[in-house]
Amino acid sequence: MAAEAARQAVLGPPYRTALKPYGRALVALARARPQVVCLSGDLTRQCEVDLFQEEFPERFIHAGMAEANMIGVAGALARQGLLPFVHSFGVFTTRRPLDQIVNAVAYPRLPVRIVGFMPGVSSPGGPSHQAIEDVALMRAIPGMTVIDVADATETAQVVAAMADVPGPVYLRLKRGEIPVIFPTDHRLSLDRAQVLEWRPEATGGGAPTTGGAGSAGGGATGGGAQTLGGAVTRGGAQTSGLADTGGGGVSAGGGVTRGGAQTSGLADTGGGGVSAGGGVTRGGAGIGGEAWTSASGTAASSDVALVVSGMMVAPALAAARVLEAAGAVTVIVNVPVIKPLDTATVLAVAAATSAVVTAENHSIIGGLGSAVAETLAEAGLGRPLRRIGLQDTFAEGAKDAPYLFTKYGLSTQHIVDTAWSVLGRPGPAPRSPTLRTNADEYAPV
Predict the structure, then answer these.
(1) For residue 178, what are the β-bridge partners?
(2) Cβ neighbours of 260 (radius 10 Å)
């Protein structure tokens, strides 16, 4: 491989859970950044921003169930030099106000942060509440950054990390109790996808928990995962006035080249490391000096690569364990930033594997699977590809999300079955065990 992907450790299931890691992280950022303002579309508690309202009522705007107007207000605030964070469920921050996002925010390249909770079929509320096309919509908008984080550790870090990203950002987040999949030394990168590996000695979480790292008054740090005031260098890490260079590359303060970093879809020059306070590494985390290994500890090649984002990281990790036990060497790639996609890591991993499987809590059309397919095709890299997600269908309503994940093919077993099939292995696919959990634990479906 021309480049080797860095490794990130993960914890073992079942995972401890954290409450309101996003809300605590936003409050921490607001303490350090007086220009941060918060807008809520009548879902204040559900989107964790009741914490912001309590501490900064003068910087909080309740827009009601008028999401299109809320986006317009956010655009106006951004024009005045403020940094608006807009909150509702994913369907109501993307599908309903799409025209306002395009014309009032994206076209003028304003720094509005749009946060959509309850992605995909994590909501049992049926098609009116299931954001199954939000990534496709946001990905199609010029200049929009699209982020889908996997756990509480990444959620605590992403708020400060995306504060100075040029232009608009869309962030999709799981609602409720959030699993802690990554340990406290995990470093979220907004420039690099990351190859995941097991940390055998770790069986429980180590990042923000309900009463610990993400406690009120203590910011949203987990053992140093986020440093208040220093998590993202203000005024230096990204220079808004230099964001657009010749319509091609988007330069982030000179330290990291975004958008133009990939040459011919292959080479990637990533700035070398603009470190955001130690909590978030921008520009070097994914393509590093040391080789990645599979979960079994083998060399940097595999039978199948699982390229996943957001809520599909946990079931992909569980599926990888099942596949490895059955003799199928598996590598897992966490893609927190779907746009701009880290094509260098995707191509490097795909080149060293026999087949690629993508998995997303979203339609297979226009999201992560489409982005990976486009990347492989444009590079001329022929690999069998299977896309796991909603198969061009609306989902039904249900009493709980796990039922929907199983019915619509987003479960651990479905990932195992798909990988087994694309590899052409004989006999039935191995079975995924069911994990027992306590009330404060999370296990993949």
Answers:
(1) 18
(2) 15
Q: Which helix (H) or strand (E) holds 419?
A: helix 412-423
For 189, half-sphere exposure in the C-beta direction (CA atoms, 13 angstrom radius) is 32
Answer yes or no: are the C-beta atoms of 112 and 105 closer than 8 Å.
yes
Q: Which residues pair with 179 in a beta bridge?
A: 17
Q: How far apart are CA 417 and CA 263, in angstroms?
A: 35
Residue with tokens 């609602």: 175
Asked if 356 and 302 touch (Cβ cutoff 8 Å), the reply is no
Does an H or E element contain 320, and which? helix 313-325
> What is the rounded distance in angstroms from the CA atom of residue 298 to the CA atom of residue 57?
54
Q: Coil, strand, or helix at residue 416? A: helix
Helix (H, G, I), strand (E, B) or coil at 149: coil
- Ranges of H-type helices in 33-133: 50-55, 67-79, 90-94, 98-100
State the Cα–Cα distance between residues 436 and 76, nearest whole angstrom. 49
In angstroms, the CA 141 to CA 168 distance is 10
DSSP 8-state assignment for residue 312: G
Record the tokens describing residue 40, joined without a space: 């809520």
Task: Check whether the bond before 14 is cis (ω within 30° of 0).
Answer: yes
pLDDT in tens, the chain (445 residues): 334 566 899 999 999 999 999 999 999 999 999 999 999 999 999 999 999 999 999 999 999 999 999 999 999 999 999 999 999 999 999 999 999 999 999 999 999 999 999 999 999 889 999 999 999 999 999 999 999 999 999 999 999 999 999 999 999 999 998 999 999 999 999 999 999 987 554 444 433 333 333 333 333 333 333 333 333 333 333 333 333 333 333 333 333 333 333 333 333 333 333 233 333 433 333 333 333 343 333 335 899 999 999 999 999 999 999 999 999 999 999 999 999 999 999 999 999 999 999 999 999 999 999 999 999 999 999 999 999 999 999 999 998 899 999 999 999 999 999 999 999 999 999 999 999 999 889 999 9
d(CA 426, CA 368): 29
